[in-house]
Design goal:
alpha/beta; TIM Barrel; 8-stranded parallel barrel; two-stranded antiparallel ribbon; 12 helices
């Protein structure tokens, strides 16, 4: 009887997901794939999130019209070796961050050129990078094609990153402005003159609040379409997950990313909350906030390994394993491998 009781106590730790984010460059160095799987196996990793789209480029061959950086051999080899070790592989897709700040010299089939009217202008943008409006159909078609390709390869899951807006006072694009004007008869660009802390009159407040809701609805509708396509069209039962900003209120206010709503509506299977705060107090406070959501079983805790000592990484892993969260995922394997860090 005592033996059974010990097993029951151990089960939650054994069942927890233990993940690694693997940045795309590893696919360009095929000799590093076998060491990745060895590392994952030795450290009891259950899930690998391999980046297959970043900055508008894909890192395998696809028939769809978008820039290709690599062939299929590396990705297929990774999948084969991972599955032999009972490790799940998720295709990590950067959804709406499509280019760096400097965008000169992009290929003709890059989304920056093929859907230029959907590119979010940088006036008032507070973070770096070039983003695209989530309601754009061309970008959605590219994401869906990647999902279909991953289904054919036998991938276990789809993992969406940068599934949000940039931190911006007013995220504007020609396409989002046009859509808003058709629905509400006013151009949200009139808010551009405003700066943080400016007093808004009653009409401006209505426009700002309505436009932000319009943008959130566009983001959620795109997620709903992706979820429906995965359920309807794919031969494999791939999971759908999203990397999210870790503090839910700030995620929605600053990045228009209502991920609690997505989980409650079952629009994704789980999220990875990127709790990369270097200070332990901030990390623990974020864990506390995430616990209060009542959604811990659908939240993996993203742990940054690049900005804290190795012993702190282990302490944070133990904290997650002793909780009701779905598990943890480390960012990133590339850093762990480069600095020879064991977990």
């Amino acid at each position: 009887m005592r033996f059974v009781w010990i097993l029951l106590i151990a089960l939650p730790l054994c069942a927890a997901q233990r993940g690694l984010w693997v940045v795309r460059h590893l696919l360009e160095e095929p000799h590093k794939i076998e060491p990745l799987i060895t590392y994952a196996r030795e450290n009891h990793i259950t899930d690998i999130f391999i980046q297959v789209r970043a900055l508008g480029h894909v890192y395998y061959k696809t028939p769809f019209r978008q820039p290709v950086k690599n062939d299929n051999q590396s990705l297929r080899h990774l999948l084969t070796l991972a599955h032999r070790s009972d490790i799940k592989v998720h295709a990590w897709i950067n959804a709406f961050y499509v280019a760096k700040m400097k965008v000169g010299g992009q290929q003709d089939n890059h989304i920056y050129k093929t859907a230029h009217n959907a590119i979010i202008q940088r006036d008032g943008q507070i973070e770096s990078g070039t983003f695209i409006y989530p309601g754009n159909e061309e970008n959605l078609r590219q994401i869906l094609q990647i999902i279909y390709d991953m289904d054919q390869m036998g991938m276990d899951g789809i993992h969406l990153d940068y599934f949000r807006y940039p931190k911006s006072l007013v995220p504007l694009s020609v396409e989002s402005r046009t859509g808003f004007m058709k629905r509400y008869g006013t151009d949200p660009a009139r808010l551009l003159r405003l700066r943080e802390g400016d007093e808004l009159n009653a009409y401006e407040r209505i426009i700002k609040d309505t436009y932000r809701q319009f943008l959130k609805e566009a983001l959620t509708q795109t997620l709903r379409e992706i979820r429906n396509r995965i359920r309807r069209d794919l031969k494999n039962k791939m999971s759908l997950s999203i990397a999210v900003k870790p503090r839910p209120e700030l995620a929605e206010i600053r990045y228009l990313q209502p991920w609690r709503q997505w989980l409650k509506e079952n629009l994704c299977d789980f999220v990875a909350a990127m709790n990369y705060y270097p200070k332990n107090a901030d990390f623990r406070e974020t864990v506390k906030q995430l616990t209060k959501t009542g959604l811990a079983s659908k939240i993996m805790i993203g742990v940054g390994v690049y900005n804290i000592p190795g012993d702190k990484v282990k302490n944070r892993i133990r904290l997650v394993e002793d909780s009701n969260f779905a598990g943890y995922v480390l960012f990133s394997y590339n850093y762990l491998e480069k600095h020879k860090i064991r977990i």
